[in-house]
Amino acid sequence: MKLNRIARVGAVAAVAVLSLSACAANEGTPAGSGQPSDGGSSLSGTVKATGASSQGAAQQAWTAAFQIANPDVTVNYQPTGSGTGRDNFIAGSSNFIGSDRAYKADEIAAGKFDACATPDIVEVPAYISPVAVVFNLEGITELNLTPEVIGEIFNEKIEKWNDPKIAEINEGVELPDLAITPVFRGDESGTTGTFTAYLASVAPDAWPYEDDDAWPVKTTRSEAAQQTSGVEAAVKAGNGTIGYIDASRVGDLGSAAVKVGDEFVPFSSEAAAELVASSPLEEGRADGDLVYDVDPAKAPAGSYPIALVSYLIGCQQYEDADTAAIVKAYFSYIVSEEGQKVANEAAGSAPLSTEVAEEAQAAIDLIGAKQ
Predict the structure, then answer these.
(1) Within the chain, how many helices (H) and strands (E) appear?
(2) Cα(154)–Cα(311) distance, rounded to whole angstroms?
(3) Rounded distance, CA 118 to CA 121, Å?
(4) Which of 12, 167, 188, 189 is deepest in the core (most CB within 10 A)?
(5) Alpha helices for 185-317 (secondary structure H)
(6) What region does 144 belong to: left with phi over 0, alpha with psi -120 to 50, or beta?
(7) Cα–chain-centroid distance for residue 203?
């Protein structure tokens, strides 16, 4: 079966709050959970996973609900960061991973995935979320920022919060005469890749670097932090700090509305989904490899231009049948309507549209054990 290559993310509808206890007690069997009709689970075993820390809150909710429905299964997901997760999958130490970027074409062509019985992999979108630009300034919770100003701040060209370039787009805000301390991901990260891709696309003069999962600036006064939680903690602990994190971790930090066209757009799951909705799937990828080509420079009006599309990545064929069954069922649960509602409640992510969820499930159906 050839998968439809032109699916789009649809508009995000309001979803009802769904607690994990309600999921277990009232919602019945999760789609693809491995439960037979008598209510017991046919799945048994342990799978190990590493990867995107942006998925951390969602993965906690997903594993909790999935393991309630499948009590003989253990899913160990460690939020190591996307780069480490991809390395682990290649090395065979993770049965599946979460990653804030898909494997590149040359990485797939190398075919060196020791987790798998064959070179073929499955990559499906599972988690769509804004990457928020957050800051810590006493008495200020919201600011307007243009792409050029963001680029100059993180490229260490704008050094003070009361710089005229910031002041002129924030009329009426009393900006302090305070040094700006940018905080960036010190580990290789798909969140960094999303953020640098945004700057490279929309502010090339202010940000003279290509998109990269590793922070490209040779810093003199910025601060490195490990994983999403590290950036969150560093921004909170500082005074005049600014960073970029998955929106699920913003909490009480200040956040920026980012200019798109003639308006400043605050982050939201709906606005991020609008950006992905305008993005095509990358051409030239195999069945089961569903990767979006997101271009922030083409963000439509009202969309939030820094949107993370985070993936689940597994094997098309595993050596072990039990591992294949668990990964297939777990992926199916995550992309199901129920799984997406759980993630929305836990992390504020944008649920997959029906069309994208169906295409993702078609890719997941390719997962099995080597014959």
Answers:
(1) 12, 13
(2) 26
(3) 8
(4) 189
(5) 190-202, 227-237, 269-277
(6) beta
(7) 22
Is 30 strand, coil or helix? coil
Q: Which residues contact 58 (CB under 8 A, 6 or more apart)?
A: 127, 248, 342, 343, 346, 347, 349
* AA identity, residue 258: V
Q: Which residue has the tokens 């969309």?
A: 303
Question: Mapping DSSP to helix (H, G, I), strand (E, B) and coil, where does residue 228 land?
Answer: helix
Could you tell me what percentage of the chain is helix, strand and coil, using 3-state DSSP and rounding each to the nearest 5? 35, 20, 45
pTM for the structure as a whole: 0.79
**Ordered per-residue pLDDT tens for the chain, 371 residues:** 334 333 333 333 333 333 333 333 333 344 454 544 345 689 999 999 999 999 999 999 999 999 999 999 999 999 999 999 999 999 999 999 999 999 999 999 998 899 999 999 999 999 999 999 999 999 999 999 999 999 999 999 999 999 999 999 999 999 999 999 999 999 988 899 999 999 999 999 999 999 999 999 998 899 999 999 999 999 999 999 999 999 989 999 999 999 999 999 999 988 998 888 888 999 999 999 999 999 999 999 999 999 999 999 999 999 999 999 999 999 999 999 999 999 999 998 999 888 889 999 999 999 999 98
Nearest of 85, 151, 153, 94 to residue 311 by alpha carbon: 85
Beta-carbon neighbour count of residue 282 at 10 Å?
15
* Residue bearing tokens 């998968």: 3
In the block, tokens 């956040």 appear at: 255
**CB atoms near residue 140 (< 10 Å):** 15
List the structure tokens of 113.
Answer: 């995935």
